[in-house]
Amino acid sequence: MLSKSKVILILLLSISIALIACHSKKTSQSTGEYQKITEKGKIIEHVICKKNINQNYALYLPSTYSPDKKYPIIYFFDPHAKGIQVIKKYSTVAEKYGFIIAASNMSKNGLSWEYTNEIYDNLYDDTYNKLSIDKQRIYTAGFSGGARVASSIAIFKGGIAGVIACGAGFPQINEPIKNKFNFIGIVGTADFNFIEMNNLNSALNDTPIPHYLITFNGKHEWPSVDIMSDGFMWLIINSMKDKYITTDEQLIKNFILKNIDSINNRNKNIQIEEIYETYNKIVSYSSGILEITNYKKTLDSIYNSQNYTAYLKNEKEINTLENHKMQEYIIAFKSKPTNWWKTEINNLSLNISNKKNISEINLNKRLINYISMLSYVSIDNSLKSNSFEKIKDYLNIYFMADSLNPDYKYLFGCYCMKQNKYEKALQYLEEAVKSGFNDLNKIEDDGYFIPLIKNNKYLEIISLIKN
Q1: In this structure, are residues 134 and 90 in contact, taking their beta carbons and an 8 Å threshold?
Q2: In whole angstroms, what is the distance from residue 68 CA to residue 66 CA?
Q3: Which of 44, 110, 224, 446 could form a disulfide with 22 if both were Cys (CB 3.0 to 4.6 A apart)?
Q4: SS3 for 136?
């Protein structure tokens, strides 16, 4: 059972991220008839749900798929309903390990749990009735708000063998978790939810839930294919431990050798914490299924070393500072002028350039990314509430913290629409799209550009997203 203090911290952080990119409930306009799925080894971008033709998902069947055999399946949830992109990203991993993967094109941040639950039910019913699925090996996975959806399904609905949660952890929990599942978290070292994920991983030590946390050099984003491959391996090895499939010792030994090679190949440049995490991964994955006494001894030796003890002390100090700064920033958004933010962000940027300690560098990256997230939320809320008193300050802070983020240009375009500055709005929208903004659903859901839906320039910009 999660301790009360740890649950409160997890929930506070979960509330802040849940504010990101909230959208109104809206169903797809897709129409069509029942689809019989026959294509293997090929990404299917839209599979229409038989029971509700307004809902659809992306799908990948491994080339080895046969209806005569049962297959594991992972249901993916993206915070912006970009199921197609998720399937494109991870289809090679699914092919390698023989998984079916399905990703909702409907589920996204801001929907009610009731509607999200309906989306999952339709997704599950459609795949289960159309495909040959191993009911003991049904998994969920997600990123950011989608990770909370993936965890919620396992916690509240059950029937899930394991969860891969990227960049965010559990939803609000008011009572002990009753459903059995294993859990693997994945988070970037520059992710503003880094502390949340570490706190959750520690809190799960007090529960019977098998768990592990993978960290990678990155920000708040879907992890790379290689990192996600380790997520798949966690599910596979735990299914062996649960006796759902036959133990493949060679597969596990290859996994161990791959990790040992990863540190041997960069022995001169590797940090003590990286060595520790490598052996911790080997022990956590393989414990209870292979003889790993020597790896445990090495892990204990590293843990008790002077260098690692110093690292843990430094991490504790960093976590304390990070929590303090985050609380300071929440208050500062209501009171501090832009010049204060300019000084603060400049100092953080200088620390990234000048610091030699990688943990301190990552701390400053996370704080800048946290300011970026707070800016996004503040601007988005101001637009929706027609409260423009401080929106220019929020836009300036966002620019200073994350000027290359295409969301900044999109939100500035939305603000211009609110001011009836249509030409300027189109300019920012075009810059956003050319910089990588491609969330057509958000543009439609937000509705700020409705006055221009017949404008030739607007249609030209939208066509860039569709293509």
Answers
A1: no
A2: 5
A3: 110
A4: strand
Residues contacting 404, CB < 8 A, separation 6+ = 435
What is the C-alpha to C-alpha distance for residues 188 and 200, in angstroms, rounded to an integer? 15
Q: Which domains does the chain have, with CATH numbers?
A: 4-246 (3.40.50.1820), 316-466 (1.25.40)
What would the pLDDT profile of 269-327 be if each residue is shown by its tens digit? 788 999 999 999 999 999 999 999 999 999 999 999 999 999 999 999 999 999 999 99
Distance (Å, whole) CA 448 – CA 451: 8
CA distance 299 to 281: 10
Residues 405-412: what's their mean pLDDT? 96
Q: How far is CA 14 from CA 88, 210, 325, in A?
A: 28, 21, 17
At 319, the amino acid letter reads N
The encoded tokens of residue 337 equal 């002028």
Residue 87 in tokens: 């399937």
* Full strand arrangement of the beta sheet holding 43-48: 43-48, 56-60, 100-104, 71-77, 133-143, 162-166, 182-188, 211-216
Q: If you ran DSSP here, which 8-state letter would residue 205 be given?
A: G
Q: What percent of the chain has pLDDT over 70?
A: 92
The whole-angstrom separation of Cα 76 and Cα 228 is: 12
For 134, other C-beta atoms within 10 Å of its C-beta total: 16
DSSP 396: H
437 contacts: CB under 8 Å, gap ≥ 6 = 406, 407, 409, 410, 465
75 and 102 Cβ atoms separated by less than 8 Å: yes
